[in-house]
Amino acid sequence: MIIAIDGPAGAGKSTVSKIVAQKLGFLYIDTGAMYRALTLKVLGEKVDIEDTVGIIEVAKSTVIDLVNNPDSSLRILLDGKDVSRDIRQPYISRFVSDIAKIKEVRKVMLGLQRVLGGQRDCVLDGRDIGTVVFPEADKKFYLDANLSERTRRRHKELQDSGQDTSLSDVELDIHNRDTIDSTRKIAPLKKAEDAVCIDTTKMTISEVVDKVLEEIKK
Ligand code: DC
Question: Which of 20, 29, 97, 188 has the fewest beta carbons under 10 Å from its own?
């Protein structure tokens, strides 16, 4: 069974997906983390962000793997190295959407996501899971929330992990990424026609999880 959870940054996708996957005993695949890992490598190798050919080469020669821990946390491996924390840094957020809009990069990620998702029952979260990666998913969700709530959540997440950023910087980052992610030519962020839309603005995490599980059981 494949559960697709899409939506903009900070809508609660990864938190909810992780819990839902754990409750169902499914694999959890964070596709945003894959784009983030690639971004970390591109920036680490000092490939210019405008150098599309160079970025595609890096994408084709990079091994990204996701390991689900028993406690439901996820480890992101970049060429065998654990980069789970590094990929959450604000400078990665700033460039990830520019890299994720490259057609060939998406092709590489699509192949990888289909292989990972084809292994067993899983929950995938991202931007184009229900529309492009797994259009035949058994159940699709589109999580959304208003910009100020999404900003507040992302800011708290960053603070909790010891990263000091201002609310206005976080809001700007989310707004910029939403714009690039939803206006790009290939696989833009959009709700799949058959997705269940949930506005999480005024909901707690457990309310969203319950709603998702209820829909899956239908
Ligand atoms: O979910 P996230 O914020 O960690 O994702 C980081 C970026 O990766 C997001 O701004 C756009 C890109 N992304 C994508 O283009 N397609 C996906 N399926 C997942 C993420």
Answer: 188
Q: Whose CA is nearest to atom 3 of ligand 1?
A: 9
**Nearest residue CA, atom 2 of ligand 1?**
32
Quick: pLDDT tens for 21-68.
Answer: 999 999 999 999 999 999 999 999 999 999 999 999 999 999 999 998
Q: Which residues of 109-122 are buried (b: 16+ CB within 10 A; e: fewer)?
A: bbebbeebbeeeeb
With H, G, I as helix, E, B as strand and everything else as coil, classify residue 53. helix
Does the CB atom of residue 93 touch ligand 1 within 6 A?
no
Cβ–Cβ < 8 Å for 9, 154: yes
pLDDT (tens digit per residue) in 81-132: 999 999 999 899 999 999 999 999 999 999 999 999 998 999 999 999 999 9
SS3 string, 168-182, reads HHHHHHHHHHHHHHH
Query: If you measure from the C-alpha of residue 93 to the centroid of ligand 1, how many angstroms do you get, rounded to a whole number?
Result: 9
Three-class SS state of 67: strand
Which domains does the chain carry?
2-208 (3.40.50.300)
Is residue 72's pLDDT more than 80?
Answer: no
Distance of CA 117 to the CA centre of its chain: 14
Q: Is 128 in the pocket of ligand 1 (CB under 6 A)?
A: yes
Atom of ligand 1 nearest to the CA of 181: 11
3-state secondary structure of 18: helix
Pocket test for ligand 1, best of 35, 89, 140, 177 (most atoms within 8 A of CB): 35
